[in-house]
Specification:
This protein is α+β, with helices and mostly antiparallel strands. The protein has a domain of 123 residues. It has five helices and six strands; from the N terminus they run H-E-E-H-E-E-E-E-H-H-H. InterPro entries: Immunoregulatory_rcpt-like, WSC_carb-bd.
């Protein structure tokens, strides 16, 4: 045996001893094996499930429980994580392959075997086909995590803004105060303007009314004076009296006119002395 072979055997022995010492013989991940048609083999420990979906959960879950059920459903790939059994059509991308020590959770149905680990899955080739396609690298996990972090930060910021907004909204801003002041000033100006316009209109109305009454009184006095001058008497009192009529409307004078004793072209506004034979 060559020195290299001896060293390799020694390393395997150390690794086996380390696994046994750390895991106490439980939850040991079986190294990857060559796929065999019709029989399930371990493909490795992966951080991704590719296109695999949950088939069932069982308290007796193990490689011997999960892989045959995936094979019976014509699924070439299976995976275990504690009590969960997954099945799919593609192997996880090779970049998601982890060290075997990452899969260290004992299977509930057979604890010497590993059924995944922290963010890790034990993947099998179920033997439906030897050559199985490999899934493309899934970047949605990191993208989703980043988006979730951004959403959480945004939500926290929004919550902070929501909490502080009511307190700030209670304080009237300078613009609001100025607009309120301007509105009140405009309203007061409109009211004052209306009152002034009403006062001017009222004053003009009373002035015109008084002037009209004065004109009527002046015309009445002038007519009274003219009538008094014509009749030769005193003007009537302003307290009210019979208006002076034209003397030509006197019935006596009318009778004389009808008798033809006095000419019609004479001025009868004055009394005419008559000489009669006694």
């Amino acid at each position: 045996m060559s020195l290299r072979q001896i060293a390799a055997v020694a390393l395997l022995a150390v690794a086996s001893f380390t696994n046994a010492a750390t895991s106490d013989g439980k939850g040991v991940q079986t190294p990857a094996e060559q796929a065999v048609y019709g029989s399930d083999t371990v493909a490795g420990c992966f951080s991704s499930l590719a296109d695999m979906e949950l088939l069932t959960t069982d308290k007796f879950n193990s490689q011997g429980f999960c892989a045959p059920r995936c094979r019976n459903n014509s699924m070439p790939v299976g995976a275990t994580y504690l009590k969960a059994c997954y099945c799919g059509t593609k192997l996880p991308n090779a970049k998601t392959l982890l060290k075997d020590t990452k899969c260290n959770e004992p299977c509930p149905g057979y604890d010497p075997e590993a059924c995944g680990g922290l963010n890790a899955y034990t993947v099998y080739n179920t033997g439906v086909q030897v050559q199985v396609a490999e899934a493309e690298l899934d970047t949605t996990s990191s993208t989703t995590t980043t988006a979730a972090s951004s959403t959480t930060s945004t939500s926290q910021t929004s919550a902070t803004n929501v909490q502080t907004t009511p307190a700030e909204s209670q304080k009237p801003s300078e613009d609001d105060s100025g607009s309120k002041t301007n509105t009140v000033g405009i309203a007061v100006g409109v009211v004052v303007g209306v009152l002034v316009a009403a006062a001017i209109a009222g004053g003009a109305f009373f002035y015109l009314r008084k002037k009209r009454n004065s004109d009527m009184e002046e015309e009445h006095r002038r007519n009274a004076a003219v009538n008094a001058f014509i009749s030769g008497g005193k003007p009537p009192r302003s307290s009210g009296g019979a208006s002076i009529a034209d003397s030509r409307m006197d019935p006596v004078m009318n009778r004389r006119m009808s008798d033809g004793s006095i000419a019609d072209n004479q001025d009868y506004s004055r009394r005419i002395l008559r000489v009669t034979n006694a």
